[in-house]
Structure to design on (642 residues):
């Protein structure tokens, strides 16, 4: 197995077959009496974004069919969702997830927050373009239309801001905004305009400096001070936003822990984290998981799910088939 | 004079000199006892964005100096501002104008609103990138930090939204949002979340359909209903935002009329409109101006300003030198 991103778990074979070969093999996996799920996993779960894109284009050119539609026909339930999400490019996938999260029956403010807060600025911009191409509306109008009250007040600028990513920090500003945050939190004005402004518009480096001042100057980390009312959906989301912006591995570790420990497993969260992070930082998330739970992430997942779905997730976590 | 955008006023000679020749000529214009302003105008005011970019690059390569800095040294007052703004690319120019508008001494919410509302989505995105490259902060954080209260509530999503530009219209939605707008305006809840959401996030086509329903179903155009209190800065800005989004030529016509009719002329507004629209839609704006004021825009400007500044503006309006 060869080149991969430092923190990705995805494993790609040293000699990757041509997109034509992969397309032929996938077609074979769909033919005959049963579907060959193992073959599908052995191909798709070991190709990077660029390679999967080429396979989709080649498959359409050779077979005159959309690979995603064929996968949809052949597969089912959690395995299907994992394969489909994974096969999409990252921008299309995020656009799909956000759109789903704005619909009444699959409404999920956390997904919107997570995608807006953990993607790079240019990746988020690509999501916006993919969203418009697919849904013929802007991500901003759908998020604004489908979210209520304070949650909207937080999510709209979070999704809207093209955040600066340089590492310059204005220390004077960090001190004054730490003080401002502390005042608002002390007043329990968690939805205050300035608090939301700071969280949703400052660069991650600047926000980090501000939160360090907060911690140093007022004796508590901000997330402790926000833990006052854990039944408040807005407050939980605000706390998670800050975590996503400053310590995303920790956020994803907690999300996985809750998804796995739930009675019945939260497969949607599990699938989302594995498919969206396998090519990015799933290795770091797995390390965080091991540290906190004293069990490797892959083993925890293997204990909790089964079948082709399990094989797919473990393949994305870097297991050989 | 040859090719130009349908609605641009900029005139470019049929045979454009090479960037090397232009750079040499500009250098000559700066040398000797006086500056040759006429020569500067005859070159820069007759080159399009791409050509000016090449001239800047060539000038820097040949003379080891930044053309903008040399212009800054040689020119002064309104003429200088017009030449400098014009010489920048459109994205840099808008980034410069927004930044200036967020500063205390040159604070101007209208400039922010105008740029956020009248540029195409991708042009606004390019402004955001140019802003970050130059100022090492995001446009969103500066706008959010420097604007107060309801004005911030309007401007932040206006600047943030990557608006959809397709012409699909959802008629049911247009009807229901027209009703919602009418209710909020009847209640004088001009800063209501939903009113701001509709104005700042819907596509221009959708917003237009909504405002047509508003007009048909409730008997008044929305701008009439918003004219209740013309001393309210927020309300004036909201009304202008809607105009910029749905009828920008009219907005710019009014802006020019006020700039010209003022005792003492508002040169900043005049320069801004001419330099930012000359390559886009200044022709349409001039037609609007003529229709409303019964005097051609170029003549109105010529009556109101003088000297090199006048020559520069008229050149951008399409006069031969």
């Amino acid at each position: 197995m060869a080149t991969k991103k430092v923190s990705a778990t995805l494993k790609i074979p040293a000699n990757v077959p041509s997109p034509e070969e992969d397309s032929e093999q996938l077609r074979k996996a769909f033919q005959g009496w049963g579907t060959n799920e193992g073959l599908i996993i052995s191909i798709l779960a070991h190709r990077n974004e660029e390679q999967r894109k080429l396979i989709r284009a080649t498959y359409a050119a050779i077979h005159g069919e959309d690979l995603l539609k064929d996968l949809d026909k052949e597969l089912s339930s959690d395995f299907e969702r994992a394969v489909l999400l994974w096969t999409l490019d990252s921008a299309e996938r995020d656009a799909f997830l956000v759109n789903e999260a704005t619909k009444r029956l699959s409404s999920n403010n956390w997904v919107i927050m997570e995608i807006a807060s953990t993607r790079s600025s240019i990746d988020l911009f690509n999501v916006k373009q993919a969203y418009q191409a697919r849904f013929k509306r802007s991500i901003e109008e759908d998020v604004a239309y489908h979210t209520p009250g304070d949650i909207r007040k937080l999510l709209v600028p979070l999704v809207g801001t093209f955040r600066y990513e340089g590492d310059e920090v204005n220390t004077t500003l960090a001190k004054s905004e730490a003080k401002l945050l502390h005042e608002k939190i002390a007043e329990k004005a968690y939805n205050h305009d300035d608090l939301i402004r700071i969280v949703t518009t400052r660069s991650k480096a600047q926000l980090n400096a501000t939160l360090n001042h907060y911690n140093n100057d007022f004796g508590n980390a901000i997330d402790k001070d926000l833990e006052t009312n854990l039944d408040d959906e807005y407050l939980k989301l605000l706390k998670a936003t800050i975590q996503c912006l400053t310590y995303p591995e920790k956020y994803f570790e907690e999300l996985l822990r809750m998804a796995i420990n739930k009675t019945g497993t939260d497969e949607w969260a599990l699938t989302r984290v594995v498919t969206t992070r396998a090519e990015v930082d799933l290795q770091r998330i797995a390390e965080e998981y091991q540290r906190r739970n004293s069990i490797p992430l892959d083993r925890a997942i293997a204990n909790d799910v089964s079948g082709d779905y399990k094989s797919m997730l473990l393949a994305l976590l870097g297991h050989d088939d």
